[in-house]
From TrEMBL:
Annotated region (Disordered), positions in chain: 209-228
CDD domains in UniProt: VOC
Taxonomic lineage: Bacteria, Bacillati, Actinomycetota, Actinomycetes, Kitasatosporales
Protein name per UniProt: VOC family protein
InterPro entries: Glyas_Bleomycin-R_OHBP_Dase (IPR029068), Glyoxalase_6 (IPR041581), VOC_core (IPR037523)
Amino acid sequence: MTSQLFAICFRATRPSDLARFWSGVLDWEVAGGPDEDAAALLPPDGSGFRIRFLPGQEPKTGRNRAHFDLTSASPEDQRRTVARALEHGGHHIDVGQRPEEGHVVLADPDGNEFCVIEPGNKFLADTGLIGALACDGTREVGYFWSEALRWSLVWDQDEETAIQSPDGGTKITWGGPPVAPKTGTNRLSFELALPSGADRQAEVGRLVSLGATRSGTGEGDSDGELDRVLMYDPDGNEFFVRRPR
C-alpha cells in the first residue's frame, strides 16, 4: 500500500511556541498536551496532513527549501491574515520581492519564511488556506513525489512542477533550477504513514526504486524498532516513513 502524507514537520527551538503561532494564524487545533518537546496541529476538517513541530537546535542558515503560501479571498482577508501573523509574533522580511508584487512575505517567530498571497491567484484557487507548500527543487523531485504519494502532476512546464492530492487541497510545488545547495538539515520535512498492517519494508523498497535513498539512522521507540525510517528524496531532502500503527 502507498504511503500517505501524514505530516509536514517543522524543526523548532521551542516546538510548542511555534505550534501556538501557526495555530493562531491558521485556526487549526493544537493536539496533545503542553509538551515542550513536540506538538501538532490537526486540520479542521479531519482530512489531509497535519503539521508537526519537533525539537531541533540547528541554527538557521539561509532560506528554507520550503515555505507555505497562504491564500486570500479578498484584499481585506489578506490584510487580516497578515495582521493575525504579526499579532502572534511573526514579522515582515525582505527576500528581494518587488514593490509591485501583491504577495506579502513574512517569517514566523523561528525565522521560517511564508507568503500571504494576494486574492485572485488562479493557480491556488480552491486549495484552502494553505494554498501550497512551495519548494526549491528539481523537476526530477517533483516526478518522484508524484509517484511516491500517487498525487496528480498538475503542473509541468519550464522545469517547474506541482502535485496535488486526488482529493484536492494544498498543492506542493517545485520551482526548478537554479536550486540552491543544501546546507545542513532541512527545517521542514515530510512524514509519511502507512495503513495499519502494511509492510513498511516493502514500501521503503518501493520508494528506493523511485529514486529515494535510505539512511542508516532513524528514531527508535521502546521496543527497539525504528518508529520512523529516515530517507532522502532525489534532491537530498530528508523525509520519514512512520511504522504502521
